[in-house]
């Protein structure tokens, strides 16, 4: 039995969960999210909680059990608290700015790089920190990863765009001639 899958999901007040045949809709104070249903997984409301069960004991059902429970829990947390990722832009002359729905990165190229934010994602720049926030956990992570890909951190000087909680393993430079 999946340890994660058998835990009930507590639905806080102000959040409405609608279980349909094709998808599960979650509506809360920050917005609305939906996650697809799976044929091998049964989702039921028991009082204030949502319970995820397997339809049978096949390998696919066992694999999907914990995943579907986590996806529903992420939707509920997203519409109540939201998610955010913090990126740091490190390097001499490196800058980050937010202009409307665009993030403008000056990271050592001959031109500034503009990244258009998708719908539902907000960005805020404070000095070298760039905060990406939204209600969809997957989308927030993907946007942060795409911005990091513009100039990943390099191991010699540590310059580049990195996550705030990421540690960069540093390498020694060239050794001098003897």
UniProtKB/TrEMBL annotation:
Record flagged with keyword Cell cycle: no
Q: Which Gene Ontology biological process is one annotated for this entry?
A: cytoplasmic translation
| Claim: Flavoprotein is one of the keywords in the record | no
All copies of domain Large ribosomal subunit protein uL6 alpha-beta, residue ranges: 11-82, 90-163
GO CC entries: cytosolic large ribosomal subunit
Q: Which UniProt keywords apply?
A: Ribonucleoprotein, Ribosomal protein, RNA-binding, rRNA-binding
One GO molecular-function annotation for this sequence? structural constituent of ribosome
Source organism superkingdom? Bacteria
Membrane-crossing segments per the record: none
InterPro entries linked: Ribosomal_uL6-like, Ribosomal_uL6-like_a/b-dom_sf, Ribosomal_uL6_a/b-dom, Ribosomal_uL6_bac-type
Q: Which HAMAP family match?
A: Ribosomal_uL6_B (MF_01365_B)
Its biological function?
This protein binds to the 23S rRNA, and is important in its secondary structure. It is located near the subunit interface in the base of the L7/L12 stalk, and near the tRNA binding site of the peptidyltransferase center.
- Please describe the quaternary structure of this protein: Part of the 50S ribosomal subunit.
Family per UniProt? Belongs to the universal ribosomal protein uL6 family.
Task: State the name under which the record lists this protein.
Answer: Large ribosomal subunit protein uL6
This chain's source organism reads Desulfovibrio ferrophilus
State the gene name recorded for this protein. Answer: rplF
């Amino acid at each position: 039995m999946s340890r994660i899958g058998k835990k009930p999901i507590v639905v806080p007040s102000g959040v409405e969960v609608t279980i349909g045949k094709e998808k599960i809709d979650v509506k809360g104070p920050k917005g609305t999210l939906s996650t697809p249903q799976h044929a091998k997984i049964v989702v039921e409301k028991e009082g204030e909680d949502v319970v995820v069960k397997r339809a049978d004991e096949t390998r696919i059902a066992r694999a999907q059990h914990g995943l579907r429970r986590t996806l529903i829990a992420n939707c509920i947390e997203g519409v109540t608290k939201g998610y955010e990722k913090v990126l740091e832009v490190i390097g001499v002359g490196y800058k980050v700015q937010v202009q409307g729905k665009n993030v403008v990165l000056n990271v050592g190229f001959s031109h500034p790089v503009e990244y258009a934010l998708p719908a539902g994602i907000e960005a805020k720049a404070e000095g070298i920190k760039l905060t990406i926030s939204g209600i969809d956990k997957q989308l927030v992570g993907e946007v942060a990863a795409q911005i990091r890909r513009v100039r990943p951190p390099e191991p010699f000087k540590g310059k580049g765009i990195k996550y705030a909680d990421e540690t960069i393993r540093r390498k020694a430079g060239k050794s001098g001639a003897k």
